[in-house]
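Figure 2 data, in text form.
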Amino acid sequence: MINEYRNAIRDHINRFIEQGKLNQLIVWDVQQDEAQDPTLLSLRVYGSRAYTDVIQVACGTSGIWEKLPEKRIAVPLIADVLRFRREFL
């Protein structure tokens, strides 16, 4: 189920980017301190350190130990993340 959850997040992000619907995503420039700590980026974007899985999918990393790229990313709105969690986890 975890792979389906992550795939759903990735598909959601890619679909909205392709459709030009960036207003339905959170667009964020990953800073140097955030690149070292995905939990910090999760806290800043969502107000909680519990969404590192979403951050990793958006950044294209596979583990919390990997440095995040310092670039602009797009992540789903919290309502969409919660919906995916209910559906897949």
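Caption note: DSSP finds five helices and two strands in the chain.
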